[in-house]
Amino acid sequence: MSRDQIEELQSKRLVKQINRIYHNVEYYRKKMQEAGLEPSDIRGIEDLDKLPFTTYEDIAKAYPFGLSAVPLSEAVRVHASSGTTGKPKIAIYTRKDIDIWSECVARCFSMAGITKNDIIQVGYGYGLFTGGLGAHYGAENLGALVIPMSTGNTKKLIDMMIDCGTTAIACTPSYLLHVAEALEAEGLVDKIKLKYAICGAEPWTDNMRKQIEERLHIKAVDIYGLTEIMGPGVAADCKYHKGLHIWEDHFIPEIIDPDTLEQLPAGQTGELVITTITKEGMPLIRYRTRDLTSIEIGKCDCGRTMARIQRFKGRSDDMLVIRGVNVFPSQVEQALLEIDGTTPNYMINVDRVDNNDTFEVQIEVEERFFSDEIRKLEELRSKVENSIHQMTGIKAKVRLVEPNALPHSDGKTKHVNDARKLV
Amino acid sequence: MVKQLSVFLENKPGTLNKALLMLKNNDVNIVAISLADTSEFGLARLIVDDLEKGRSAIREGGYTSTLADVIAVRLAQRVGYLQEILDKLSAAGINVEYMYTASTGPDGADLIMKTSDPAKAEEVLAEAKAEVLKQDDLRKLGGDN
């Protein structure tokens, strides 16, 4: 498709989508009315910047089904990812949404070189997280043979990889490096038939990709997505690694300045904003992803013309991605309230050791919850660990430290120390 | 019943030293001390001659501390005596959280114990003819001086 053809299709679909949501979603109708907009004001993508943004606060306010553009009887599935506080961000899918999602993921797999003749192990978690089921349906859509491993049992994954002759794997890049280590430790790298890896759900570097490719003798590509928009498969890179091709027939990407909220031209770095133009269940208009990147337009070496999202340069908010899971410092803060209703001074330490993310929360022990019995302090520690696990979905190691062990500053106290070098 | 000063310490070199320096600089004498540790943190349990001065010195040093009701008891040097005492405590449904020796000599041994019910524990000990010490008696620990 030429750029003109892509934009013509996007304009047509955007106009239809705006009409639908204006009439079907009260939340959007109100937002548009507040901005003084009628559906007829949106005649094509040139009018996109008139539309108000959607943020995760909007999704939180509309929890659980307030942004649904269909009656729930038309919806067939929900997924969810962590929100900034207790409630998750829910996404709603119709049958057609699942079909389009599956096709987008299938395109990503196909772009990586995978065909119906491949055997794919899905090593993402199955459940509310979009990774497992998203990759699964995409692989089935392609006609490949899918082994739904899910997460948590590396030995079994390796056994099946060897016994079934798995040729492709979808999982987080850090987990794949962990699998590579396990294979090397057992001297089993020669026994696998793996050719491709589709890795995503967390930021990674070219260096990590090269390590994966060299150690396992495979080709690895990056896949991008977010639950609110769809899940994995919104974009992926091709073998030329010139950026992640975003499927512009379903999504309109924009880059904005996160401070002024003005649109930025191609090539400039800012916050990625995505509009879903075919989604039925929970269409999002100008959704602020908080991911910082730039977009390249123009034909890729692979011949594809769809825009390419460049390397992610961080976030415009304080979200952390730990072991593929989105974690907000505010969730940890909320978990700490469990101690006695107030938040002690704390520090979140994130690092990557042996290709695994470490997640440690240090808490300054204060007199109001201090006990002279080790048993009670250990109980306190495990209580906080449990509540962080419940709140974020992943396990943290809680460490009790002396007062003043953590940095205190006058204004805004720093609560996160991310020592991972990924950008 | 006596008050014990308990101090939270991270398990790393120098932390206890710094806490004890605070006591020294404020002229507080340590009558008894016990250290409990885990791999990451520890607790210094202290009986000091001047509780108020001791606690404010520890606070001044920036440490987290708490006061706990413990029992100081002088037991005669006799085989099986401590076991008999524990027998009586357990019969009364009292749990011993922890215990340490403050001093020991030919005439007796001074123990510090934290129990689930200090008031009841003192009654049981008094019935068993054990000498229960008071805060003012603490200076006597380790001998009559």
Brief write-up:
The complex is a heterodimer of chains A (423) and B (145). Chain A has 423 residues and is α/β, with parallel strands linked by helices.
What does the model show?
The complex is a heterodimer of chains A (423) and B (145). With 423 residues, chain A is an alpha/beta fold. Chain A has two domains: 90-316, ANL, N-terminal domain (Rossmann fold); 327-418, ANL, C-terminal domain (GMP Synthetase, Chain A, domain 3), CATH 3.30.300.30. Helices cover 30% and strands 24% of the residues of chain A. Chain A is built from ten helices and 20 strands. The longest helix of chain B has 11 residues, at 15-25. In chain B, a hairpin with a 3-residue loop joins strand 2 (30-37) and strand 3. Chain B is globular. The mean pLDDT of chain B is 90. Helix content of chain B is 29%, strand content 39%. At the A-B interface, helix 10 and strand 19 of A face strand 1, strand 3 and strand 4 of B.
What is the CATH architecture term of the largest domain in chain A?
3-Layer(aba) Sandwich
Number of domains of chain A: 2
Strand order of the largest sheet of chain A: 4-3-5-6-7-8-9-14-13
Total helices of chain A: the number is: 10
What is the terminal separation of chain B in angstroms?
21 Å
Strand content of chain B: 35-45%
**CATH architecture assignment of the largest domain in chain B:** 2-Layer Sandwich
* Most strands sheet of chain B: 7 strands, antiparallel
Strand content of chain A: 15-25%
Topology:
The complex is a heterodimer of chains A (423) and B (145).
Chain A: H1 3-24, H2 26-34, H3 56-61, E1 75-81, E2 89-94, H4 95-111, E3 119-122, H5 130-142, E4 145-147, H6 154-164, E5 168-171, H7 173-185, E6 196-200, H8 206-216, E7 219-226, E8 231-237, E9 244-246, E10 251-256, E11 270-276, E12 287-293, E13 295-296, E14 308-309, E15 320-322, E16 325-327, H9 329-336, E17 346-353, E18 356-364, H10 374-392, E19 397-401, E20 416-418
Parallel strand pairs in A: 3-4, 3-5, 5-6, 6-7, 17-20, 18-19
Antiparallel strand pairs in A: 1-2, 7-8, 8-9, 9-14, 10-11, 11-12, 13-14, 15-16, 17-18
Chain B: E1 2-10, H1 15-25, E2 30-37, E3 41-48, H2 51-60, E4 65-75, H3 81-91, E5 96-105, E6 108-115, H4 118-127, E7 131-133
Antiparallel strand pairs in B: 1-3, 1-4, 2-3, 4-6, 4-7, 5-6
Helix pairs in contact in B: 1-2
